[in-house]
């Protein structure tokens, strides 16, 4: 027994014991007393009889976890498929899903994310469907031009369905679009504070979503553009962890053959390349600081041509890896990824104090020359990969 000031609350089943002020009692008997068919005084964290007999004392909250494990074993052995609805985002089952994903995979279970409440302030900032379209149009004409991590056709065609099933995630993404595409005189705006707090609320709820990750990258871009350090560096690290939890880090290692899967796959690939770019760019000031993300190898797939990406129609002839990327059919974002790959080698050379830089220097200037030709052909006012090369 312990006083309420010393022991943690056992949860909603904890009741004040009227016979002994300050001591906690539970509604149900412990498992040991139930099995022995004896009277339990329901003291927490251990009843009196179990304390006297030095026996294990487990209450129904712990028994439910064991039941879940038994159910998973039964489903796995039978090969069935089930869906587990989670009544609360704070449920311990979400943590168990994260800690032991192999069990959930073998049991073919599906976790239903709980909707995060949207306040009136958030809803007013987002506005109507027309307001969302206006915000997204502004974003696609500005930031999207050089950091195209969101499929415009996919976004526009899914607004209504996401308003129904992923409302909080959509609102976070829209507010992040507005944040990074609106010019402000000072970085510490009410919108920035609102978006950061809303992102924290969704992230801590246990939701794992591509929309949330895209929003987090846009927040990091805002912080980078307004020199908010070390917040930008920490935000990129958080994006890398979140992407790994979603399995997006593997998106550059393979390429599917079906058109139906291509848009989602390409979106994930672009998200991971964006994280790689930001991680390396943020280390320019201190090359000896360890990168958060691993370097892409030569067999890693580059983003698709931007024209195909904007139209949503895949061109099978324009699929390249870092090893095969010697074509003028590469998109601008693919060149941006190439520049990030070379920047990674520069960081390694500087941190290791290597003098063998001649070949790397020639490769960098070769990319600059190609980018200049493409910028002239495509009439580009800004070339992100050239900026990285000169940086």
TrEMBL record:
Residues 29-59 form the Zn(2)-C6 fungal-type domain. Keywords: Metal-binding, Nucleus, Transcription, Transcription regulation. One of its GO terms (cellular component) is nucleus. The keyword Transcription applies. GO terms for biological process: DNA-templated transcription. SUPFAM superfamilies: Zn2/Cys6 DNA-binding domain. Pfam families: Fungal_trans, Zn_clus. This is Zn(2)-C6 fungal-type domain-containing protein. The lineage of its organism: Eukaryota, Fungi, Dikarya, Ascomycota, Pezizomycotina.
């Amino acid at each position: 027994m312990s006083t309420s000031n010393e022991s943690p609350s056992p949860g909603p089943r904890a009741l004040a014991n009227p016979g002994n002020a300050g001591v906690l009692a539970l509604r149900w008997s412990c498992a040991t007393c139930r099995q022995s068919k004896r009277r339990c005084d329901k003291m927490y964290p251990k009843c009196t009889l179990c304390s006297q007999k030095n026996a294990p004392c487990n209450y129904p909250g712990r028994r439910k976890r064991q039941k879940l494990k038994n159910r998973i074993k039964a489903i796995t052995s039978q090969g069935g498929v089930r869906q587990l609805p989670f009544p609360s985002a704070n449920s311990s089952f979400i943590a168990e899903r994260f800690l032991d994903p192999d069990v959930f995979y073998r049991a073919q279970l599906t976790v239903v994310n709980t909707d995060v409440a949207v306040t009136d302030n958030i809803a007013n900032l987002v506005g109507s469907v027309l307001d969302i379209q206006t915000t997204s149009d502004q974003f696609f004409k500005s930031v999207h031009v050089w950091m195209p991590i969101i499929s415009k056709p996919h976004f526009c065609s899914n607004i209504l369905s996401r308003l129904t099933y992923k409302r909080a995630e959509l609102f976070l993404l829209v507010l992040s679009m507005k944040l990074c595409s609106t010019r402000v005189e000072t970085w510490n705006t009410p919108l920035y504070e609102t978006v950061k707090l809303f992102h924290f609320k969704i992230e801590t709820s246990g939701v794992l979503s591509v929309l949330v990750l895209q929003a987090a990258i846009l927040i990091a871009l805002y912080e980078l553009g307004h020199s908010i350090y070390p917040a930008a560096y920490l935000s990129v690290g958080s994006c890398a962890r979140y992407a790994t939890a979603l399995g997006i880090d593997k998106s550059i290692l393979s390429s599917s053959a079906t058109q139906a899967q291509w848009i989602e796959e390409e979106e994930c690939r672009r998200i991971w390349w964006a994280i790689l770019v930001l991680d390396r760019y943020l280390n320019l000031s201190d090359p000896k600081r360890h990168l958060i993300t691993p370097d892409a190898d030569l067999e890693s797939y580059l983003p698709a041509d931007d024209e195909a990406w904007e139209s949503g129609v895949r061109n099978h002839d324009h699929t390249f890896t870092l090893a095969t990327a010697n074509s003028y059919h590469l998109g601008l974002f693919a060149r941006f990824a190439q520049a990030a790959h070379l920047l990674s080698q520069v960081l390694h050379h500087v941190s290791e104090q290597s003098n063998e830089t001649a070949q790397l220097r020639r490769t960098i200037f070769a990319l600059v020359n190609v980018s200049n030709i493409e910028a002239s052909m495509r009439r580009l006012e800004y070339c992100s990969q050239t900026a990285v090369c000169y940086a």
